[in-house]
Amino acid sequence: MGSVNREAFEEYPEVGFLRDELTGLPILNSVLEQVDFHLQRRDQVGFLYFDVVQFHLLKETYGREISEALLEESGQALARLRGRLFRDRDLVAVGGRGTDYFVIFLFSPPRHKASFSQSDLKMVSCRVVQKLTNLINEKAASLGVKEKIDFHSGYTVIVHDPETPVERLVYEAQKEAALQSDLDEVLVTFVSNLTHELRTPLTCIKGYAETLLEGALEDRDLARRWLQVISEEAERLERLINDLLDVSMMEAQQVEFHFEPTDLLLLAQRTAEVLMPHASKSGVTLAVRGTDALPLIQGDRDRLNQVLLNLVDNAVKYSPPGSEVILRLGLGAPGWVFLEVLDRGTGIPASQLPRIFERFYRIEKGRGARHGGRGLGLSIAKRIAEAHGGDLSVESQMGSGSVFRLDLPVRGPFIEEGRDEED
Ligand SMILES: Nc1ncnc2c1ncn2[C@@H]1O[C@H](COP(=O)(O)OP(=O)(O)OP(=O)(O)O)[C@@H](O)[C@H]1O
Ligand SMILES: [Mg+2]
Question: What global pTM score does this model have?
Fold first, then answer.
């Protein structure tokens, strides 16, 4: 059982860990018999999972002794909550040496109910997290820890399945609960980013409208200028909302793509023409280098256009005056074409590269704000590339520029049909 609160769990002597053969990840060996026992008698067992956020950082900063004392405190706190937040007999908690997580199995659903609902589990999970957070933070403060300690939590239902060994069921539940706790975090960040993005233009609209109402309306020239600002900000809001809708529809696979034979070189040339005036305002030139040998591809022209506009717009935004942005097209692996957008701009730090395709992700707030970016363009572009059966990737060097590369299969996302006849 390791360092965590041996006494509280002594009625479950075989607490320990099995490793999953495939992944090498620990599975919760300790309670498999119990879970098995209950799954023979009912359809479901509730599964709740808690882990200490960034426990490894605590360990690095405060050392092993303190961090393990904190884990032990959490284990004891959990034991003290038995019979209060959940029925005594329903709890089996697990933690182990070097592990920073706890698990609760709820063997029976709340009174009067035949099965668990997500909200039953969520309620218990929230209350446990609340209590654990308070208790562990009191202890942490008394040990001189300055940071606030938080818990991730996740929950899921383990459903009886005679075909699947109980080890696998528990392991899958653990994986799913951990994944879900990550998703909750993504959602929270998403909503807070969204609120910020919506608030900025709204504050602006409200401010100008109020000043106009307070009397500035009398000055016709001024009034016209400010109404102009209001209208621009409203347009910005509209674009933001449309783009957001786009991302979420694409994520839900609800966007229809219209595939037709498409000349990628032509699309690139058009994009360059459209953005030329914009680029020359920042002193940047655009060039298209392609080959006539490029085959037509199965693509959605409007959507591909959207990708190119964003890639070139980005490249121009982050390029110094006097430099060149190049759109380079060519043949990739057999059956594939590529389009690269190269710039000699600021570049992107290696540590940020994997993240720039996330919604709302911008390298630094100041940078984005100066350019009015919202961090949506690349996430949309990536989804569009994937919907074509292709991919969007990036390589970059700080200070010397970036290359965004769109790889597309000539035949689009379709599985080849009629191959057998050909063979
Ligand atoms: N060519 C580039 N050079 C340097 N940084 C880039 C480049 N392209 C993108 N980035 C970084 O990636 C971030 C995300 O780009 P993305 O296109 O998604 O958003 P954006 O351009 O800020 O806003 P918008 O939603 O209007 O496109 C940018 O804010 C920028 O920090
Ligand atoms: Mg962009």
Answer: 0.59
